[in-house]
Amino acid sequence: MAIASMKGKLIAVIGDEDTCTGFLVGGIGEINKNRQQNYMVVTKDTPALDIEETFKGFLKRDDIAIILINQNIAEVIRHVIDQHTSPIPSVLEIPSKDAPYDASKDSILRRAKGMFSSEDFR
């Protein structure tokens, strides 16, 4: 039943130019009937407020199931990501070409680890 409700949902990307280009070449680019893109290219000059507004906009859209965000960009809006507790859209932090993934910074992963104890893995 949950899979049926996910049919037709999009992946959104907030990332650097290389990350967004890679996903767009892979076919995830979409513009909805309101002319809203499902991606945002972030440069060194992009204001944090613009990133935050785009992220919040993706959270409100009912056609987005997953938000991929470069971890170094996620750090800029960490306070907003930490407030998101709904399972859909899922927020996944990914590495960029210039910044490797650091699991200790990933708030979603930290939250997931808190759900289990070491006893659960024996």
TrEMBL record:
Keywords: Hydrogen ion transport, Ion transport, Transport
GO cellular component terms, semicolon-separated: proton-transporting V-type ATPase, V1 domain
Coiled-coil ranges (or none): none
Classification via Gene3D superfamilies: ATPase, V1 complex, subunit F
A molecular function GO annotation: proton-transporting ATPase activity, rotational mechanism
Record flagged with keyword Repeat: no
Family, as annotated: Belongs to the V-ATPase F subunit family.
Protein name: V-type proton ATPase subunit F
Organism: Littorina saxatilis
